Amino acid sequence: MPNFYDEWLGLWDKATKEKQEARRVIHAEEIEWVSTPQDASVGLLAAPETGFRTWGTVTMIAEIPVGWNTGKHAHGEEGIHIVEGEGFSVVNGVRYDWDKGTTIWIPFGATHQHFNTGSEPALYYSAMAVHLEHFVGLHKMEQIEECGYTEYLPETEASPDGLDELGRRISLRWDDAPRREGGEDTKKNEAAHFSGDTNEATKAAHHAFMLGFMGSPRAGQGFHNKEIEISGVLGDAPHTHGGRHAHMEAILYVLQGEGYTIMDDERVEWKKGSCFHVQGPQTMHQHFVTSDVASHLLRTAPGIRSQFFQDLAKERFPYQVFEGAGPNK
Description:
2 domains; 329 residues; Jelly Rolls; mainly beta
């Protein structure tokens, strides 16, 4: 008769089967838009509810109509990236102005609300660890106000530099984000393992460039995030490919460009507005750009990857690099 240990022995195979059966990508036209007390229009992207096997993370896309504000609420940590529009967010009573390309950190438990002050609908991407928090008994969402037309703008003090009173970064604009030609420097990744024929150029770069947003606190942008990382934008030139590598979970939202990713021998097509999932812990993958414009892939990862499991499990599940970036053949 099977006992608990027999079950434990089978968990790897069970997880592998679940990942094989899970969804890999969702496209903009497949999003199911709904209205909630918080958002006039919002749809889930990569999330367990849409068929993805994430590490407890959910990602979504929401629209704020012209002249509207979202609801005001509080919950666990959240990362936000402004895809379109201009306006501001009030986080714990302080105003942070934003426009297209701004990344925003919502600290765990902070009250927050977003206002569209532009002439076009605002679109924002959001990542939270709802299911991970629920698993450990920490998820608590409190709705304070509901979304609606903005009758008057709140008279709140504006942060001049994107920092809160504790010196923590809350917002970072696109133009202020550090840019590294060649993408991530994998030579500095202590969890990275390189194949025997990997040259120094490949080790140093596997994308054309990377903009650094809300990565781990070690990244140096001043964010104090722990659960969620919107680590930045990975960019590759038209008709080129990024490096071939394998690592733990990542979720990528396509801001610009069109192409496909080979993930463990499966071809996953993507275009602007698509969101696709690198499952981990060692998912081999490589991105190919087929469009006449460069690709901009917004990368999200759970904090438990870079700040816990990636280092803890690096001997058994190392970050692997096999091939560098280059032109498509």
